[in-house]
Write a structure and sequence with these properties.
- The strands form two sheets. The protein has an eight-stranded mixed β-sheet with strand order 2-3-4-1-5-8-7-6.
- The protein has 212 residues and is α+β, with helices and mostly antiparallel strands.
- Strand 6 and strand 7 form a beta hairpin.
- It is globular, with a radius of gyration of 16 Å.
- It is built from six helices and twelve strands.
- The longest helix has 12 residues.
Length: 212
């Protein structure tokens, strides 16, 4: 189990403008990630150090975005002005997570602009919708070399997640201590009784620490 990526929902100005704004802060341009046909969304990606990445995601004008939980989550966050959507944990075998949560994972895919399809299984988005401090889980089925973090610069890394929530609740959800998938990322917990979710993320960049 490890931190896979963090997701940021596009604001009123749309995905491209949001990605350009974040890219200017971090000193790197996002790349076009392509379309998630099953979820009715698309993204732009910034590969980071430590096999992680940052995505900016937005919904498409497509029926799938109203039916799929991930599309629903993105639409709701963008409608609220955009901002941090959540964090995602990668596992080698998603079956134990399915057993613990009592439901089956769903297939996910993303068609990159070059036509190549990335494939994975995911579970837990409904948990994120109900309680935004909780991550969801992915098991990648594509080759490791196709992971969206491929080509990431070691100069930009996720240094800290500021999460409003309860680490005990998150540990219960993960099935192990929350520190396990976040060994290289500091977590600052705040407002355990307030509105849960990611408050901010801190990135180490060539220009120093950047908080978004």
């Amino acid at each position: 189990m490890r931190l896979d990526h963090v997701s940021y929902a596009a604001g009123p100005d749309g995905m491209i403008a949001t990605a350009e704004r974040l890219g200017a802060l971090l000193g790197r341009e996002f790349v076009d990630g392509g379309v998630h046909p099953r979820f009715g969304t698309r993204n732009r990606i910034l590969p980071l150090a430590d096999h992680t990445y940052l995505e900016v995601v937005e919904v498409l004008d497509h029926p799938a975005s109203d039916k799929a939980p991930f599309g629903q989550a993105v639409r709701a966050r963008s409608a609220a002005g955009g901002g941090w959507l959540g964090w995602v944990v990668a596992v080698d075998d998603i079956a134990p997570v399915e057993q613990r949560l009592g439901r089956a994972a769903v297939d996910g895919s993303r068609h990159r602009p070059d036509g190549h399809a990335l494939k994975w299984k995911q579970i837990g988005v409904n948990g994120l919708i109900a309680d935004p401090q909780l991550p969801f889980f992915v098991q990648w089925e594509s080759d490791l070399g196709d992971h969206p973090s491929a080509g990431g610069s070691e100069e930009i890394s996720l240094a800290c997640l500021e999460i409003a929530g309860d680490p005990l609740r998150v540990s219960e959800w993960l099935g192990e201590p929350v520190e396990a998938p976040l060994t290289d990322v500091k977590v600052e917990w705040a407002a355990p009784h307030g509105t849960p979710g990611i408050l901010a993320a801190q990135f180490q960049t060539p220009n120093g620490l950047v908080r978004i």
